[in-house]
Amino acid sequence: MSSESTTTSTAHTTPDLANETREGASARRGKAVALMASGTLISRVLGFVRTAMLAIAIGSTTYVADIFEKSNTMPTIIFMLLAGGVFNVILVPQLIKASKNADRGSEYTSKLLTLTILVMAAITAVLMAGAPALIRILSAGWSEPMIALGTIFTYWCMPQVFFYGVYAVAGQVLNAHHRFGAYMWAPVANNVIQLAALGTYLAMFGAYAGNSEEHFATWSSTQTLVLAGGATAGVTAQALVLLWPLKKLGLKLRPNFRFRGMGLRKVGRMAAWTLLAMAIGNIVNLYTGKVVSGATAVRAGNPSVPGETAFNQAQLIVILPHSLFALSLATVLFNEFSNAFSENRSKDVGPLLSQGLRTIAIPMLFSAVALITLAGPLGRLFGGTSIHAEAAGSATAILIVLMAIGLPWQSYNFFLIRVFYAKEDTFTPMLLQTFYSALTLTAAIVIAYTLPWEIRAQALCISFPIAHISQTIVAHLTIRKKYGTYGAGNVIGQYIKIGWCAFLSGLIGAAVAYSLGAYSYGWAWSGYLPAITTIAATGIVMLAAYIGILKLARIPELDDFLGPVLRKLKISR
Question: What is the pLDDT of residue 17?
């Protein structure tokens, strides 16, 4: 599609980024980030509550918990494997171009939505038919009854693939028209419905008491309906709630099967590399899940052995800061990168990237330190209420510590890769993803053939930061070669300064956490309220200390990060 000049009809929907002042761009960017981050925050908080309730209902290191986790996460990974990369990074530049047409992209968007529904319906049908084979392939050491329950769970959960597709495309249409909030707020509906389903489950069947074998042996079809059906109902709602803001765009959307003229050939060429990159990455994810799943069969009642549920719980916690801060800012900057390249303003990309990287260092470095400091109480939140709650919580806690080490590098690399996608270069990200995947796959294979099941999850978590750091270095060198410098030396210098500030705040926070028994299975581990109190008290002290230390160190990025937040809250600095 051609990117002709913007018509009068689109002037109100697409800002003139080229002529916008730096202050105006910063304010607009900050407003968008704040809106997206608030939606993500509420969604993630509800997600934490949902995960904690799930641990209460079925445990976190039990047979049923790991089997359900396998079936319920499989649709997400398969969706990203098949199409997620195309939806998330390829379509936005195309939709932005289409939005500048006389019809504001109505025809293109109609065709895209029609094609999405058809393709995702076909894919979902094939996956449903292959559910028994999938659960066998992606598990290790499971008994026939475990495979049978996993297959039933998968039948209930696999329709999520279709609704993930609808959600992704509708969300990217909204993002392309600078309506960022709905896409980030839609998961709130998902979590609310799943919380209702879990509340129903607890009312009907009560909490998991502590006997994994008996719990598994007496599992009923009604329990499956409430648990797995509720999960799929949540994803369905997440997709459907976007239909209203999509309608409010004022686009004339209707079924359109005339796919010629969509530029599918061009998009297909770009998508091929993106699909390959996502396929490589998610195949590795599926394999690592298989490696971890072996703990389920050999646990033999030992709740301190982390399996797939604990592994995914740790990922859920560690990824929160990335989703809350890095993803929100990167989504806004991605549109600005795309506009800069399309308008032959490539010289603007470097300063934008540098500013984004330095700004995001403020929350990401603090978050990494906070996660390490509070890993114990955080793990306890997902330990459930059974007699094995402390042991189950500690299994998650150790994984949080190991994963958190790589968090700042993950976000740094995420920003770098968005530059390539904004340039419509999908080949380079594919190579970078292949490099990362090769490292993690090699580590997973070595771990699978050399280490006992009981410590494989921990070993895999150690390999992730190493892979993130390595990928970031290669991405940095590639950016410099293709697009010139972006002031990386200054960026790294600020990361070091900010990192020291975060470390000092962590020492202060650790003293508070220690006094509350966070490192000795003391009061902080005695229940949900003590764990939450410890997290809140330590977090508040750490945050206050961090801000104070940053101000004393005269770190200018603090104002860049806090400014939009304070303006959003109408707080005068």
Answer: 43
